[in-house]
């Protein structure tokens, strides 16, 4: 896997506040739709690998679903 951006909103156009490192464990609070992006898991998704699902993490930042292993 890879590290992914810690974003202030569900979009790469919001401000970035560091990274979630590879293997980091995060607590997901809720999800919402945002900017469609591609990421680590894109090759396994339909629609060309684009996904607009983002998760709000308990630290108040957002992480893209395409970079998140939710089991």
Dominant shape: globular
Terminal CA distance: 14 Å
Secondary-structure element string = EEEEE
Strand content: 35-45%
What is the C-alpha radius of gyration, as a whole number of Å?
11 Å
- Low-pLDDT parts are none
* Secondary structure category: mainly beta
Mean pLDDT: 94
Q: Give the strand line-up of the largest sheet.
A: 3-4-5
Number of helices: 0
Number of strands: 5
Describe the overall structure.
The chain is 0% helix and 41% strand. By secondary structure, it is an all-beta fold. The strands form two sheets. A three-stranded antiparallel sheet has the order 3-4-5, with no helix packed on it. The model has no long low-confidence stretch (mean pLDDT 94).
Question: Briefly, what is this?
Answer:
This protein has 71 residues and is an all-beta fold. The chain has strands at residues 4-7, 16-20, 28-37, 51-57, 62-64.
Can you tag this structure with a few keywords?
about 0% helix; three-stranded antiparallel beta sheet; mainly beta; about 40% strand; two-stranded antiparallel sheet; about 70 residues
Spell out the blueprint of helices and strands.
Blueprint: E1 4-7, E2 16-20, E3 28-37, E4 51-57, E5 62-64
Antiparallel strand pairs: 1-2, 3-4, 4-5
């Amino acid at each position: 896997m890879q590290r992914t951006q810690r974003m202030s909103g569900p979009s790469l156009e919001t401000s970035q506040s560091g990274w979630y490192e590879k293997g980091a464990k995060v607590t997901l609070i809720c999800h919402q739709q945002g900017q469609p992006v591609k990421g680590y898991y894109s090759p396994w998704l339909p629609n060309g690998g684009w996904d607009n699902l983002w998760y709000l993490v308990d630290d108040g930042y957002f992480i893209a679903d395409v970079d998140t292993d939710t089991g």
